[in-house]
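Hello,

Our lab assistant flagged a job as stuck in the queue for most of the afternoon. It eventually completed. Since we weren't sure the result was trustworthy after the delay, we are filing this so someone can double-check. Below is the sequence as submitted and the structure that was eventually returned. Let us know if re-running is recommended.
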Amino acid sequence: MVNRKELNPDASPQAAFGARLRRSREAKGWTQEDASAHMGVSSGHISGVETTRKSPSLQFAKAADVAFGLVGTVDTFERQWHEMRNGSLLEGYPEYVGYQSRAAEIRVFETGVIPGLLQTREYASVLAEAAVQRGDITPEQAAERVDVQIEQQAALARTPPPLIFVVLDESCIRNPVGGPQVMDRQLSRLLEFAEQANTSLQIAPYTMAERKPFRRLVYLLTMSDRSLMSYVESQTQGHLDRGLTSVLPLVRNYHQLQIGAASQAESVAMIEQLRKGIM
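-- returned structure --
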């Protein structure tokens, strides 16, 4: 204990993670060697994470959750890792991503831009760079934001895959983000998505007008136990909701949206026609 380093959890998100790891370890009465045996990582690595000399990985965070009995709880090390890793994202989104990676069904509505779940790296980079130019985020956060989007897509390539239903406002495909080449590749990505066996893609045309129930991004998740949750965003804040009474109306509205939107065949034809016009 002579060389024990005092920790300041307020110094940074990484410091908060390390301080929490030490508190959890000491609450169990474990030495770093004991924690090493339970987590399957070296005691030196545990020491490095606690003192911020080393950055924790997602695998490290998951191992800590197993060791300290936090798997399946709300306040996990994995959640803290996502919040630390995804500091450039809106509040609530990192937690949502954790649930999305385990969802049986995913329903998405977006207006104005293609949702992150379907963005190409080029398209995502253009949006992130625009946020840098506005002064909303740093260049480092922009790169992090793009990486998160791509990682999020990769996490859905699992067996069995989730069912993914996407309805895009017509403005999403007509807003010329990044210019003709970026948009052509992005529209091609939408067509590839529509061809998959576990997906559905529809366009909500401008003519739906006031019949469109949503005016901003909405994500709806159905988990394997059939529980429901929603994630919605404003300009500055994201909100994850697991309350059945508040989520069910959104699910009903989504079904109405699907009924009023163009069919997948009509939507694909609309995208293909648009591609011909931009190149």
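-- support follow-up --
The delay was a queue issue, not a problem with the job. The result is valid. The two ends are 68 Å apart (CA to CA). Strands lie at 105-110, 163-169, 199-204, 218-222, 228-233, 238-241.
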